[in-house]
Design goal:
8 strands; 2 domains; ProC C-terminal domain-like fold; 13 helices; Rossmann fold; about 270 residues
């Protein structure tokens, strides 16, 4: 049996634990979080697998084979009290594998704070909550291939996983990590456009969300470039080209590019 620890039991930790528990792996969980409600919600996601509540973050490091650091980056230092963790792993034959889902905090910093060399960084996004996540992943040089493959398989229970160089994880954060917020804004804007043109709000909301879902599904399953798919919808002199012109005139594409750039820079700052 593999013991999997979580420092932090928020929604993303819950989604990951639920995905891992639903896999074929023989696992037990140990979790530390100041919120009893979060731990209760975490336990509810694990399909009746064993979940132990740890008294401290150090206790997670003392007993788990794999430790997920599932806290926000601004709490990283507080969550990894170095001397406590060093004491916790001092008597272990092998220290745990550390998996971080924190934006911006690099592998070197995690190694320094935990005194553990085997570190994997992953950058999931909120669609992991419904099994449709997009995740970037990078490993320290000390991580064994078998451990890398195991964590990749665990993460794939919540969506796709794409290995990238660590220096690209900030860009992953800016694109897919923050990207759902951009898409939610797009859905709301589409719906508001429908309302302005006379549709009832509930009808407009449904059509907007399904349109975004369907377009994304078509892009994934067809394998065609988005620009090719766009051109297939766009007839000369038709409705779509009129709408696209309005988007271009109002800087739609540049706004999205700028959003990814701004979020990427913020990720670097958090590190």
């Amino acid at each position: 049996m593999i013991s999997i620890g979580f420092v932090g039991a928020g929604q993303m930790a819950q989604a990951l634990a639920g995905g891992i528990a639903a896999s074929d792996a023989d696992v037990a969980f140990i979790v530390a979080d100041p919120s009893s409600d979060a731990i209760e919600a975490f336990s509810a996601k694990t399909n009746s697998r064993s979940v132990e509540k740890a008294d401290s973050n150090a206790d997670v490091f003392a007993s788990a084979d794999i430790v997920f650091l599932a806290v926000k980056p601004q709490y990283f230092v507080a969550a990894t009290e170095t001397e406590s963790i060093k004491s916790a792993i001092a008597g272990r034959e092998n220290p745990p594998l550390v998996v971080s889902i924190m934006a911006g905090v690099d592998i070197k910093s995690i190694q320094s704070r935990t005194a553990i060399e085997t570190v994997i960084r992953v950058m999931p996004n909120t669609p992991c909550l419904v099994g449709a996540g997009a995740c970037g992943m990078s490993c320290s040089d000390q991580v064994a291939e078998a451990d890398r493959d195991r964590i990749k398989a665990f993460m794939e229970t919540t969506g796709i996983v794409i290995p990238v160089a660590e220096n690209l994880l900030d860009a992953v954060t800016g694109l897919s990590g923050s990207g759902p917020a951009y898409i939610f804004e797009l859905i709301d804007a589409l719906a508001l456009g429908g309302v302005k043109c006379g549709l009832p709000r509930n009808v407009s909301d449904q059509l907007a969300a399904q349109t975004v879902f369907g377009a994304a599904k078509l892009a994934i399953e067809s394998g065609d470039h988005p620009s090719v798919l766009r051109d297939r919808v766009t007839s000369p002199g038709g409705t779509t080209i009129a709408g696209l012109k309005a988007l271009f005139d109002n800087g739609f594409q540049q706004s999205i590019i700028s959003a990814v750039e701004a979020a990427t820079e913020r990720s670097k700052e958090l590190g």
